[in-house]
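Two folds, back to back.
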Amino acid sequence: MLTRREFIGGALAAAALGACRPEREREIPGELLGPDHALGHKLRAGGFAPPSRTERAPVVIVGGGAAGLSAGWKLLRSGEGGFVVLDLEARAGGNAAWGENEVSRYPWGAHYLPVPGPHARAARELLRELKVITGEKDGKPVYDETVLCHAPEERLYLHGRWQDGLYPRLGASAADLAERDRFHAEIAALRARVGRDGRPAFAIPMENSSRDPDLLALDRISMSAWLDRKGYRSPGLRWYVDYACRDDYGGAPSEVSAWAGLHYYAARGEGEDDRFLVWPEGLGFLVRKLSEALGPRVRTGALAFDVAPDGDGVRVDYLDAATGTTRRILAKRAIVCAPRYAARRIVKPLREDKSPSAFAYAPWFIANLTVENPPEGRGAAPAWDNMIYGGKGLGYVDATHQSFSLDRRRAVWTYYLPLTGDPDAQRAAAYRRGLDEWRELCLADLERALPGLRRRVTRLDGWVWGHGMILPKPGFIWGSERAAAVRPIGPIHFAHSDLSGLSIFEEAQDRGVRAAEAVLAALGKSFRSSLSLTPGS
């Protein structure tokens, strides 16, 4: 096989003879995609016309991401079908957006769901409805084997070859491995710990977590400070934790609270099941199914710009992008499922609050690469998740990993790059970059492990998430501003994963279900709670 240096040298020589162009100049088609910024920026500009039509509905849900769709799902399955979901994008789903080409569906955001633990009752209910949970054995759910991540699940590239698993074992010293084992022992103890209030130390959803003071104090320091305090100095372990913080929160350990950093490890599976549920389109599968269940109640291209109390109800004004007209809905209750930075522009009482916000959001870049004859590299076999030690991004996820097709000559790989550092500066820089710059950054990063990859890429599309996920900085998760943001304002309720400080599906769903149950109670509707109750709650 040609080395990268040999190939480039040959290509340049051929270019000098007019036979071909250098490898770097080969055009790879693609588009730079993302949320509808033009429509979203209208919210900032304002100046909307008065409503040309008014209608009535018992409930309006603003935002069609996982929280909004879950709120609608809870209302519908409780017998309240008189609601409307407004979403500004052409397709609902929020940051669980997805795409599709002739090879496969693929994610533009969240790409897996850990097998839900016992406190994630709403998630288990949904998975039963979707036949992902097919039964029960020994009191535990049985999952459809086709969506449990097939082996190999993960591999890591370092020292010129791929190894199985995430922790960098190749070249690790005895001292490194001792630190790894000590870290895992601490995580195991946290997984098993039950607080004095009867709650697990760390749970999903996070509202079920213990409020023991020593645990809450972890939120006031960074994950890197916790590692320092505990004497963890091994470069391999520090990278392992850095990867986890960037993967789940879009921030470096110095930017992420220790409570959040430990939650990543200690809450997953809650000691029962560490497997992943995966689909080619990632969590696009779940939001697609939820959206289909709600049917025409979901209105896309609908930019809600004013939500205000109105008598004993609520008034919601929105722009219909298809017609360019402004419409009004008078409702008894509203559930605002937009991220807090958007809610502060949409909801009148919040718009009047000019104080600075503790809510910070991590920007991301994501690419989907269509690859012919996918290279495997040296060492461990290709896996679902393929990380690169010391890489700029998080490696790539193979959207076609679960495929039962015998034709493995084409694949779609999803590349993830959290833009760590100052979120505002990174966001501004991300919006200035064009597709050519993103493409080169992505391919150069992946070619550290797979030289010559660009020759096999037939298409590369990119997506910039300016506010990709909530960044749980020290002091945020158990701070006063997040707690206050959860509370309703009169007939206006709130639901979004950022109200948990953790941008994962179970938190978005939990917030949507909580808000829906509060609305049902206010409307005098009976329902069976989907929330897990623990002692002291």
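---
second:
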Amino acid sequence: MFPPHDRNPRSGSVSRRGFLGGLAGVGAGAVLLGSSPAAAAPSRKLTDPFTLGVASGDPLPDGVVLWTRLAPKPLDHDGGMPGRIVGVEWEIALDEKFADVVRRGTERAAPEQAHSVHADVRGLEPHREYFYRFRVGGEISPAGRARTAPAPGSAAEVHFAFASCSNWEQGYFTAYRHMAEERPDVVFHLGDYLYEYSAGENGDVRTHEGDEMNELGEYRQRHAQYKTDADLQLAHAVSPFIVTWDDHETDNNYANLTPENNEPDEGNGSEAEFAKRRAAAYQAYWEHMPLRRFRKPVDTNLPLYRGFTYGSTARFSVLDSRQYRDDQPYDDESQVSGPDQWRTTMLGEEQHAWLEKQLAESRSTWNVVPQQIYFASMDEVAGEDPGGYNDGWDGYRASRDRILGYVEEHAIDNVVVLTGDVHKHWVNDLRRDFEQPDTPVLASEFVTTSISSGGDGDGSNDPGDLVWNENPHTKYYCDRRGYVSCRVGKDTFAADYRVVDYVEKSADAPVRTDASFVLEAGKPGVQPG
């Protein structure tokens, strides 16, 4: 059992070195973890096993996943843990002092899963704030805040943020701290949570540990290194995350079982060799994310696309645009167009059919599709040639046309695509034929810039005349780091484009709103907010 809530209290203020005021951490208890039929207690006291913080994720109206990983030596491949199962107690309460505990339990943290914990807590009340913590040996974790989804039929406003692309070497994760200060109901992370490259390959703000990741221990080490960041820990502790991956969690620009490069000496020389690398990457990803236990990888696969309904306000259909796609056309070269873009699939048949079912069965006002890569056309070729960004949906035009065609033919209203990947803020209206600007707007796309990837950027709001002239569906652009904060209700979908002006020289940049946009239910097309 946990010690009484008032034993050895420890509180934090709003800073990157502590958790938000109101998320009171608790100190080490004097009572050792009792024996459990599920797992044995450690034979000795672990020194701060909670170096990677805590997280919650995948909220439902009646439940949420609670996550931590025991790692007293976080940069060791085994986290500094013994090679045996350890029992980890958890509890969830209505108050930050844990005077009113409503659920508790014990999980088995196993060495073959990097001593990670994925407690799937059920029996909670909808759209309610909860506080949670873990305990092992004589150590109690910092506290985290979770929030369940609204009840079916509820018209509650939803406040969410979405983010993407955090490169350790290219800048500080300041934007995560500012996002945490907003205390969103939920955060969508749209991929490139970390980067796979060797130490020093991407920049010199901070340095990665180790060489380019290929094996399980290397992926575990890199995930752990990122999780030691105080701003990222804060963001996870304040709000539940719903995550999906892009490429850098595994290998730049990979497609299904095709790696970026065919280099036998780097373990990328064949599909079989890359399958081993992908399996290691997927295993480490699951171990370090607040995902349900049943989603852990099987062989080389991890079932990541999934849906969340936030009452009658929004249905979120989270996609996986890496695991099932065909190889990029034209050797992944950008701004090359041709028939091969109509022969490729982005999602695979099963995921496409699932998305169509999600859209058809939705009874929520807003049909939101969080996914990884640029959905609109990105034409940077003057004249009639449509160009195209072939790692994005331009390279998979048959898949994009299938989605937009389904939206048009079945009169699916209020479709909003959320996107990461490109390290810039963008806003686009979506048409089935981007070369015909007089055709109907069927949906809109909000694209977030990166947390740190690309460094400070130039601060420009102008991508150039060529982009404006060739892409009339594009409404906004900004080259800074940050995230997007959204408030969604029955009648409106409002998006604030949040910006930090520097991430390279220090971790203390202020945040500002560079632009705001709004969608009105039943009225296609974005408008200035």
